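Notes for week 9. Today we move from apo structures to complexes. The key idea is that a small molecule is not decoration. When we ask for a structure prediction with nicotinamide-adenine-dinucleotide present, the ligand SMILES becomes part of the input, just like the chain. The input block below holds both the sequence and the ligand string. Read it once before you look at the output, and try to guess where the molecule might sit.
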Amino acid sequence: MRHFDLIVIGSGSGDAVISGRPRDWKAALVDDAAVGFGGTCLNVGCIPSKMFVYTADLAEAAGEAGAFGLDLPTPAVRWQDIRKRVFDRIDRHSADGLRHRRSGGPDLTLFEGRARFTGPKTLLVAGGETISADRFVIAAGSRPIVPEVPGLPDAGFLTNETVMRVDQLPERLIILGAGAIAAEFAHVFSALGVRITVIARSGGMLTREDGDVSRLFTDIARRKWDLRERREATRVERDGAVVRVHLTGPGGDEVVEGDELLVAVGRRSNADRLDLPAAGVAVHSDGRIAVDSRQRTNVPGIFALGDVSSRYQLKHVANHEARVVAHNLKHPDQPIEADHRFVPHAVFTSPQIASVGLTEQEARTDGVPYVVGKRDYAGIAYGWAMNDPEGFAKILADPQTGRLLGAHIIGPQASALIQPLIQAMSLGQDAATVARGQYWIHPAMSELVENALLDIPPRTG
Ligand SMILES: Cc1cc2nc3c(=O)[nH]c(=O)nc-3n(C[C@H](O)[C@H](O)[C@H](O)COP(=O)(O)OP(=O)(O)OC[C@H]3O[C@@H](n4cnc5c(N)ncnc54)[C@H](O)[C@@H]3O)c2cc1C
Ligand SMILES: NC(=O)c1ccc[n+]([C@@H]2O[C@H](COP(=O)([O-])OP(=O)(O)OC[C@H]3O[C@@H](n4cnc5c(N)ncnc54)[C@H](O)[C@@H]3O)[C@@H](O)[C@H]2O)c1
């Protein structure tokens, strides 16, 4: 049996652990390239989706240029070229990564294909070989959840793994789900001229965001798309080129029709495909591998990171956890802990959304005292320049100390604007210090954040 110092399962964020291993270790990387070498973010997630979002933002801006006195023609959409720009780059990067790892040198072996545990420290890889190691890092990611709706498998459907590579733009796209993937792809495809129907189980879209943000986004979505709220899909059928989704909701039964159906109802950990009981690795009730603050599983020497174990399915979290694991492998006597205190996220839809920390509803439910500062883009000079009528920044702070508890922005460049607030929370700065302790460039968009901070009532402590 070939034995290694370290085996990493997963070429997404796990690849960084391979790069950061001690130089004298004999290591193996195992990956089935189910979505392409390099994992989800590179091949079917963050990166290509944001490249499409940028194109969609341009198309949308062209459509809105009339309000600025510019009468531009409706953009002619060359889908094949849009797709080519994205995947020429993505596929080259993935292929380069694979080539690099295939020629990894004497100390690195790449095993291509799906692996599963056969014992506490033994792994069965493709081709029937069993390999073993002193240490394992499980970075096996997650996959789309496919809900059990009668007729769905036969009707055929898209997921984030396939929707970006369709050969033709559909005229009508139905999206099942109303979360991050739904919001981003509804924007992408509607900006390119596709008619969108979104099927939401609850009364709104992005309902985990702060209530004010979710309500505004839902209002905007209702204006742009056919948003069916409080609906359950009961059956799916395909009739030639048409896909029909049967729904039940407050108004009774109804049917929506489209050319394609995108399923975006969440993602589940790939832990169930690893035969973890053979290794004795414990999982949570939702299937994620259980880890402690040092990213250790219950089995000594086996670590896990990223979507396979994290309650945050976000690439910056997976990267952070990979750094923690790499450190703890190298320095077992000086271990560090993962910092999940202030995990931000952004939804790259239109308008953009970004968030960190407590939402107002969470603060209320948890009984956390708070005050709010809130300012509109419409109230800052750059907001006038952009004609933004609805977006805002909202900040929650501790009334006594002025420390930030949460921040939520909906509007242009929200994902970049929020960074000083993430920094303030991470470094424990209070609102007045952040607002008054530095210059804010005039008349930049960042004045939105400055003004929201200044809107927070003076601290009482
Ligand atoms: C459409 C979409 C957009 C997203 N956008 C963003 C965004 O804008 N920002 C953000 O922060 N996050 C975003 N995410 C989330 C982000 O992509 C994930 O959190 C991140 O990629 C997870 O990385 P990972 O290393 O845990 O898993 P992955 O990158 O999925 O890597 C896991 C690897 O392990 C392999 N594997 C699994 N099981 C086995 C096995 N048994 N044997 C061998 N190999 C195996 C898989 O094939 C895969 O290559 C997005 C996700 C999606 C789907
Ligand atoms: N910009 C980003 O950071 C980004 C973008 C896309 C995806 N992601 C990551 O990928 C993950 C998965 O995205 P997602 O949009 O699939 O999940 P999500 O959890 O964001 O949203 C899932 C949606 O599906 C609905 N839903 C759940 N089960 C359903 C069912 N059986 N029938 C109908 N609707 C159902 C939920 O109510 C919700 O609206 C996200 O949690 C996020 O972490 C991140």
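The mean pLDDT is 97.
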